[in-house]
């Protein structure tokens, strides 16, 4: 009995040591919760660092990776256009005939405390969702 318990404990410890705790997950489709967190973050100017001047209207979500920390850190890839304010980056934004580019938008969300932050926005070379 003691040998079986010890073996089980060793297997658990080994599997935990092998796991990449806090590592971002694989790219995946952008689900409802991720979209909700994205729009809560990007549609309010107070959620941006003062050095982060870009405001993007997301015309299409390509993919997202997420990492659970004290909330969720998302890295979104979106096709979108530059807009003049966070208010114009909300869910009902429209790029119209503006040029679309691909952007990487990093968002931190802790929905239970209503904490949303846009950590960075960067234009990237065009990518295709590999889903």
UniProtKB/TrEMBL annotation:
Database matches in InterPro entries: Cystatin_sf, Prot_inh_cystat_CS
Alphabetical UniProt keywords: Signal
Range of residues in the leader sequence: 1-19
Protein name (database record): Secreted protein
Organism listed in the record: Achlya hypogyna (Oomycete)
């Amino acid at each position: 009995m003691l040998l079986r318990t010890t073996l089980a404990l060793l297997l658990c410890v080994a599997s935990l040591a092998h796991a990449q705790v806090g590592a971002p997950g694989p790219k995946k489709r952008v689900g409802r919760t991720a979209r909700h967190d994205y729009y809560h973050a990007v549609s309010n100017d107070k959620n941006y660092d003062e050095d982060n001047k870009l405001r993007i209207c997301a015309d299409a979500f390509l993919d997202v990776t997420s990492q659970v920390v004290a909330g969720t850190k998302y890295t979104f890839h979106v096709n979108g256009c530059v807009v003049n304010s966070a208010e114009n980056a909300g869910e009902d934004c429209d790029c119209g005939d503006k040029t679309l580019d691909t952007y990487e938008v990093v968002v931190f969300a802790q929905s239970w405390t209503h904490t949303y932050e846009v950590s960075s926005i960067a234009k990237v070379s065009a990518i295709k969702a590999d889903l």
